[in-house]
Design brief:
single chain; disordered N terminus; about 525 residues; oxidoreductase; Cytochrome P450; transmembrane; membrane; signal
């Protein structure tokens, strides 16, 4: 009997030591917050807006620190030099993604931005790079410019609905370019359903929004009726596939009918075998590109307008510059952009001040990594704290203030004398092999719209019942992996009557461009088009 008591005591001691070790920080890891046995830092991992807490920890533990999430390890990078070394110079071994259970539930591993680094990802990425070249972006300028003209026209007629107008523009522009089919209204089915799906999808993907399935696998066994996240994943999967396969089927029908209009997915369909894509992969290549371009551009342009309202002096300087360069008698074109240094600086400052992706989609190491005096184990999750980098007072003077002028002083907006060669002007489009393949298309879209909104309109705070200005809230932002201002009110008015007339004339002229992209419109959409193009 005594022997069994001793044996049980020894086993209990070993189990205690094992549990105590699980969740503890290995001695060669970067420092980080204190851990608890078994759970590590899980108890302090932020469930909402984690970039704020990650930035606070960076002030305490430095530009590279570690978090223990149960037995797993997460590394948070808030130093652009370390980001460059790990994720760009060593991209062959740091380009994997975490095995995210919720992503598997929704996409079955077919989301180009979130799936694991492997043959499926390489095939999809190869197709995206083949079609999204700078030269191809130039060929798509006519429809991008026409969509931007409708955005101006929509702002002119119903400025109070500017959030929806921005959504229609960003979704319709990329749908026209990719699938050759536009949305004349926000209510057009493809656009309204897309944003409904993306709202739920982004919220589900935010770090901390779901239990740590991948670290505590038993949580995957919880029945769906007791799992709100599983029910959400099932609903989003149905919506996502209906949209993406619907986009593809419409393109296939047009090609069969000889109604090609030069859209990118026509080329993908023609070269599908060369790229190594099956039909499901093809649908997700296009669908995920629509995701990236629609959501991030919409978020960015909302922040752009928010900052114009909040910082009237910056808006005044931008107005003065565009009036001097473009004049009063025509819209701005992409050829004007290089002659507008202050407006370019303003766009960069919006990226810095309110980055669309405050934490980039995490990477995963596929081998052990040594950096500085630390060892980062194989399989570690790496978070790039873009917010922390772009708000670092060691890099930027008064980073919490909005100062476009900083980008006129130095190329990357950093303090004079700072070596910022490793810092990208904007981290919005990712780093290393996982950077966004549609960067040229997105930057062109943002530039055309921003220039023409500044040329055409004044953006001022809304007024209350007593006529007092209502200040906008610069911190009221949505939850999710991408960050957009919550709906806010403002006054949008044409700067002159002549400019309003130019917008109306340009919109009528753009209908010839629109016509070859208006396929499969509903009766309501057709009525809308006819009403505004008579």
């Amino acid at each position: 009997m005594a022997f069994y008591l001793v044996l049980c005591s020894l086993l209990a001691g070993v189990a205690f030591l094992f549990v105590k070790k699980v969740g503890s920080r290995e001695t060669d890891l970067p420092p980080g917050p204190p851990t608890l046995p078994f759970i590590g830092n899980l108890h302090v991992f932020p469930r909402e807006a984690p970039h704020h807490q990650f930035t606070e920890w960076a002030k305490q533990y430095g530009g590279i620190y570690s978090l223990k999430i149960g037995p797993g390890t997460a590394i948070v990078l808030s130093d652009p030099n370390i980001v460059k070394v790990l994720l760009e110079k060593r991209s062959a071994t740091t380009s994997d993604r975490p095995s995210i259970y919720i992503v598997k539930l929704v996409t079955r591993g077919l989301h180009m931005g979130l799936n694991r680094y492997g043959e499926t990802w390489k095939a999809m990425r190869r197709a995206a790079h083949a079609i999204l070249t700078p030269q191809a972006a130039t060929r798509q300028l006519p429809i991008q410019q026409a969509e931007a003209v409708q955005l101006l026209y929509d702002f002119l007629n119903t400025p109070e609905s500017f959030h929806r107008h921005l959504g229609r523009y960003t979704n319709s522009a990329i749908m026209s370019v990719l699938f050759g089919k536009r949305s004349p209204r926000y209510e057009t089915r493809e656009t309204s359903e897309f944003f409904r799906m993306m709202h739920d999808w982004a919220a589900l993907l935010e770090p901390g929004a779901t239990p740590p399935f991948d670290l505590i696998p038993i949580l995957k066994l919880i029945p769906q009726r007791w799992s709100a996240w599983k029910r959400a994943a099932s609903r989003i999967r149905v919506m996502q596939r209906a949209l993406y396969f619907g986009y593809l089927e419409d393109t296939e029908k047009r090609v069969e009918n000889g109604e090609e209009n030069g859209s990118y997915m026509e080329e993908v369909l023609a070269r599908r075998e060369e790229f190594g894509l099956d039909r499901e992969m093809t649908a997700y290549v296009g669908g995920v590109l629509v995701e990236g371009a629609s959501e991030t551009t919409w978020s960015y342009l909302n922040s752009f307008i928010l900052t114009l309202v909040a910082f009237p002096e910056a808006q005044k300087k931008a107005h003065e510059e565009i009036d001097r360069v473009v004049g009063q008698d025509r819209l701005a074109t992409l050829a004007d952009f290089e002659q507008l240094p202050y407006i370019r600086a303003l766009l960069f400052e919006v990226h810095r001040f309110r980055p669309v992706a405050p934490l980039l989609v995490p990477h995963v190491t596929t081998i052990n990594q040594r950096i500085e005096n630390y060892i980062i184990p194989k399989g570690s999750t790496i978070f790039v704290n873009a917010w922390g980098i772009l708000h670092d007072p060691e890099l930027f003077d008064d980073p919490e203030s909005f100062q476009p002028e900083r980008y006129l002083i130095t190329e990357n907006g950093t303090k004079p004398g700072i070596d910022a060669s490793s810092l990208k002007t904007t981290l919005t489009f990712g780093v290393g092999r996982r950077s966004c393949p549609g960067i040229h298309l997105a930057q062109t879209s943002m530039s055309i719209v921003a220039m023409n909104l500044l040329w055409a309109f004044d953006f001022k705070p809304a007024l209350d019942a007593q006529g007092n200005e209502i200040a906008v809230d610069l911190f009221a932002y949505s939850k999710g992996v991408t960050m957009a201002p919550l709906p806010f009110e403002c006054r949008i008015t044409p700067r002159t009557g002549d400019k309003a007339e130019i917008i109306r004339r340009e919109f009528l002229d753009a209908t010839d461009v629109f016509e070859k992209f208006e396929f499969g419109l509903s009766a309501d959409d057709k009525a809308f088009v006819e009403r505004f193009t008579r």
